[in-house]
Amino acid sequence: NAGVTQTPKFRVLKTGQSMTLLCAQDMNHEYMYWYRQDPGMGLRLIHYSVGEGTTAKGEVPDGYNVSRLKKQNFLLGLESAAPSQTSVYFCASSYVRESPYEQYFGPGTRLTVT
Amino acid sequence: DQQVKQNSPSLSVQEGRISILNCDYTNSMFDYFLWYKKYPAEGPTFLISISSIKDKNEDGRFTVFLNKSAKHLSLHIVPSQPGDSAVYFCAASGGGANSKLTFGKGITLSVRP
Questions:
Q1: Distance (Å) from the C-alpha of residue B47 to the closest C-alpha of chain A?
Q2: Could you give the CA distance from residue B90 to residue A30 in angstroms, rounded to a whole number?
Q3: pLDDT beyond 70 at A102
Q4: Residue A102 and residue B49: Cβ atoms within 8 Å?
Q5: Minimal Cβ distance to A105: which of B32, B45, B99
Q6: Dihedral through CA B66, CA B101, CA A110, CA A19, nearest 10?
Q7: Fewer CB within 10 Å: C terminus or N terminus of chain A?
Q8: Residue B109 near residue B84, CB atoms below 8 Å
Q9: B83 phi, psi to nearest 5 deg
């Protein structure tokens, strides 16, 4: 049982390049989330999904797109990377019908945009 | 506007002493609160939670207290150990259909041997 995994672990992009971050979970969780963590800013929600085929915007969605084609996978895309998107990205999942609404996090992807 | 505030960015305590990490919130619709612990280069891991119908929850060395009237919660770690050195995030949820968590900025705890 791997929990939540993220691919890749590190990536360096040039401004304007695109990439996709992959999140996979093997806990049969319904809800999945993408966060970014910046120094002094805590964790901010980018997009989330309440089930296969559905996505919704979080607190900081601009510049990102997501897709949830399969229940176990949640993809985060950057169409045209900008230096402001340099951050550590965390994926999380939860089985929301059970309290305490605990979210399980992946190990993170460190992205640098030059 | 920050709905979950962790106003102290860091805390340093002696091994064996109590660590008290504070968190304030502004949204009265929050009804569930969680603490997460994060080591460098790892994802956050769940530590302890509390429902708004309680004012205290204990799990081993960790106790969370909730004061709803003050919109304040605190995490107590007794006794503190060097392995507790990490960043601690306070998070809040509106519960029900709103499963999203709102996180504070985090507090860096250093436990000195």
A1: 10
A2: 23
A3: yes
A4: yes
A5: B45
A6: 180
A7: N
A8: yes
A9: -70, -10
